[in-house]
Write a structure and sequence with these properties.
single chain; Pnp Oxidase, Chain A; 7-stranded antiparallel β-sheet; 3-stranded antiparallel β-sheet; 5 helices; 14 strands; binds flavin mononucleotide
């Protein structure tokens, strides 16, 4: 009965109130109560927070850029990164043409031109002069000078999904940054002023406060 109510689109928000009232009087915070407070929400590829990067490619010898959020590290040695880009994008033509691409980390200052690149395809407009660019060893992966971190990638594998996206695995051949964005030679997330993305509600965010040291803070855990 309750499950039917929860699934009903009209009463979608009612279960929270309903369950809340019923259990407010129960003082003990049992695990069961917590589970009952959960509502099933619309299924989606939620992942919070999401990175967002600017992919740089050459198409017919001209730079083209697009924002891309479906990016992930897949291997440490050699360093390999994966990107998932829709087969309709101009970017895919460039990656397939040269077997190279760049991954440019956007700082907050780059959010407007980055978003513009997501509104317009290189099939419709020339995006080659939106950013000042430079090239590295691979010669065909344009990188953004103003971006605090640039990864120059060579494609090592392409998976063409029947559902519409190409997954490109790119080995990072070179990484570029500036002293002002580094701490002990490593890119510093705060100094780079990076932004994050949240999908479905379509928003950009800046980084918040430091919470703790990874592989360290957990040592203080007590059962
Ligand atoms: C914040 C943001 C994230 C995006 N992430 C992706 C993504 O992960 N994969 C993808 O295929 N398209 C993604 N897009 C859409 C492309 O960036 C957009 O369609 C772009 O105009 C394609 O450019 P192109 O045709 O010049 O390659 C994203 C757009 C925005 C604004």
């Amino acid at each position: 009965m309750i499950i039917k109510l929860i699934n009903s689109p009209i009463l979608f928000h009612l279960p929270i109130i309903f369950i809340g009232i019923n259990f407010r009087s129960i003082k003990s915070k049992r695990k069961k109560d917590i589970i009952l407070r959960k509502n099933k929400i619309r299924v989606g590829s939620y992942l919070y927070p999401m990175p967002v990067v600017i992919i740089g490619v050459n198409v017919k010898d001209k730079p083209n850029f697009m924002p891309l959020a479906w990016v992930s590290i897949v291997e440490y040695k050699p360093p390999i990164i994966s990107i998932s880009s829709h087969q309709g994008h101009y970017t895919n033509i460039g990656i397939k043409e040269n077997q190279t691409f760049s991954v440019n980390t956007p700082s907050k200052e780059l959010v407007i031109p980055m978003d513009y690149c997501g509104l317009k395809s290189g099939k419709e407009i020339d995006k080659s002069d939106i950013f000042d660019t430079f090239y590295g060893e691979l010669k065909t992966a344009p990188m953004i000078k103003a971006s605090p971190l640039n990864l120059e990638c060579r494609v090592v594998k392409t998976i063409e999904l029947e559902t519409g996206h190409d997954i490109f695995l790119g080995e990072i051949i070179n990484a570029y940054s500036e002293d002002k964005f580094l701490t002990n030679g490593i890119p510093d997330v705060k100094k780079m002023n990076v932004i994050f993305f949240s999908m479905n509600d379509n928003n950009y965010w800046e980084i918040g406060d430091h919470v703790g040291r990874a592989w360290s803070i957990g040592k203080s855990y007590k059962k």
